[in-house]
Amino acid sequence: MAGMEVQNVFYTLPEEEGANVYARAVDALGKHFAPQANYERHMFRKLDQSPTESVDQYITVATEIRDV
């Protein structure tokens, strides 16, 4: 059984004629609850420019973290 958060994600899936509902649900829920993506997003949002870091250096680091 799943909780309300899983149900909310499931009910927001668009209905597609002839699509395998189970496969779509597993794929969507897997993407939604993927811990790696959440960790990477956290690291990107946590990024802060140090006082000795130039804007170019900061943008380079931010781009590298974004592309992971």
UniProtKB/TrEMBL annotation:
It comes from the Eukaryota. This is Uncharacterized protein.
